[in-house]
Amino acid sequence: MSTEQAAGTRAEELLELAERYAAHNYHPLPVVIAEGDGAWVTDVEGERYLDMLAAYSALNFGHRHPRLVDAAHRQLDRLTLTSRAFHNDMFPLFCRDLAELAGKDMVLTMNTGAEAVETAIKTARRWGYDVKGVEPNRAKIVVADGNFHGRTVTIVSFSTDPTAQEGFGPFTPGFEVVPYGDVDALRTAIDGDTVAFLVEPIQGEAGVIVPPEGYLRAAREICTERGVLMMVDEIQSGLGRTGTTFAVEHEGVVPDVYILGKALGGGIMPLSAVVADRAILGVFKPGEHGSTFGGNPLASAIGIEVIDMLREGTYQRASAELGAWLLQALRDASLPQVTEVRGRGLWIGVDLDPAVGTAREICERLMARGILAKDTHESTVRLAPPLCVSREDLGWAVERIVDVIGSA
Ligand SMILES: Cc1ncc(COP(=O)(O)O)c(C=O)c1O
To answer: What pTM did the predictor assign?
Structure first.
């Protein structure tokens, strides 16, 4: 079957095919999307929905942003892949632009977020042995409970979510989990073998959990005092999502290592990166780490455009302003079914009273009203529309969200 013939397949058949042929590692809402434009998508039957998940923030600039699509088309017509065995004419420019955006010296590119986190872990361990002088194979990385950093065996080794771990052991040693937001626990956990503290500035998958004010600043101070790398996973929180380029900026914190992904590829290509100074990323020598597709010219060309869009600051401002409006509108609704509304920028978690049903049920009802949102855990609905969403679209959405949750 050609892709042109495939385009006419009906939703029912597509859902059945997915059920039969695709591994059941996700539980998607029963909507089959055929087209996307800005903050909106259209399903195979022509129904329109406001996308309030934005592919877990990979679509910060919306679906098919014209600047990004143009950059991709131009590059598709020239060169798509070289591997890193050779240089290409996009990769060095992308690395320079990203390093400058983050105010660091160097970039190491990968594809998915999990690969970037793995890369950061390898970086910290190698730095620990070569620079800090930790005894071989003793390096420890401190992480926070409730974390979500991806799905590889090493990363799920320090997950505190039983669903992520069960049945996948044996696990990788070398991690210590401390409570998220607890400065004293972090201080206590750090010992002479500790090479890094790996943390999300806001925990997304845990339910858009914003840590107590001052936590990241205190963590920064502790890491500096104890000679430990502060590595922030900004894969979901970064690149405009919270109203600033990086979420750590809300506390004026500069980490040692940024871990980026998702929106870096403009919602078109997987593109992730670790960004740090030469004293840290300089530990790698040829052959010690890499990826066939990492830093490919197509992804790099899109990444260059993404960074250019972020330099202008309009998406960050839109996220801050619209996010503040959305948060207030949802709080003002004072729904008895809602126990908490929290967030930063256009990234909001709505906690439901479990007595009114699950967040999944609410998301199904929202879908029937033209809104695509995603539950996390049993009772949190998270809202993270593309940053190009309009104020009118959000007003439209709030009416429906309040109606759906208010009648649950
Ligand atoms: C904070 C964070 N880190 C890492 C990842 C993993 O990224 P990927 O799914 O691209 O491997 C995610 C994905 O949701 C994330 O939110």
So the answer is: 0.98
